[in-house]
């Protein structure tokens, strides 16, 4: 079971980063709502994603060159206005929603901390130095955003003194390392219920989605332990950091056609499935993999052919 974070509110059903979108996320049963913030020319934090108003409103111009009054005069879709962060925070509280605030530029740290102090909030950014500064300014929860899969994303989070990672790309090793370090993982932007269930299985604390209504049921599906006596592989290899709730192959996704295959989710997404593979559970292979954690699937298949057990 993971938390559902409405991305820019619930942008699949309402104009993004508006009060209507926040209300829609609340109506879908989201646990938190994510919004983006930028600074106007006259020093107000407004909820908008892009550096300009061109894409999301009927106006044009850069946010940093416009006063709040000018931005508020624009239509952000379906008659909605661009809200201030203060308005978004108040509405989220009224709806009993937590709020995730992404700083879209540097230099907002002090203003954001003052606005969110004492609130149920997470402050995030691609600017990891800003995330660290927010943590040093106050007691708010923070998260780094990453769009690639660096060598050690958990080290990046710890360097920024962050409580969480918001990754666009994930793999099982990220979840293993994050659990060991006490860092939460919130993948984005996940709109496929089957992918939500898989990420639950890996140990996601929550998922960021454009469609909180569409994934709410999948996010609530429980991830249960398999009792030892019922597991077909017991006693298994028990790699370090692995337990039965988050049982997965350390090589996933190997994409080896002898060991698994691509399948289509209900929504047509192409996913790698190795549910029928037993390679790493075989004793000789498990022993070899424990001693050689960087082994490839080809090496393990050779060990299996030679092992005889």
From TrEMBL:
GO molecular function, one term: phosphoric diester hydrolase activity
GP-PDE domain sequence ranges: 2-219
GO terms classed as biological process: lipid metabolic process
Xref: PROSITE patterns: GP_PDE
Signal sequence, start to end: none
Residues forming coiled coils: none
Pfam families: GDPD (PF03009), zf-like (PF04071)
Protein name per its UniProtKB record: Glycerophosphoryl diester phosphodiesterase
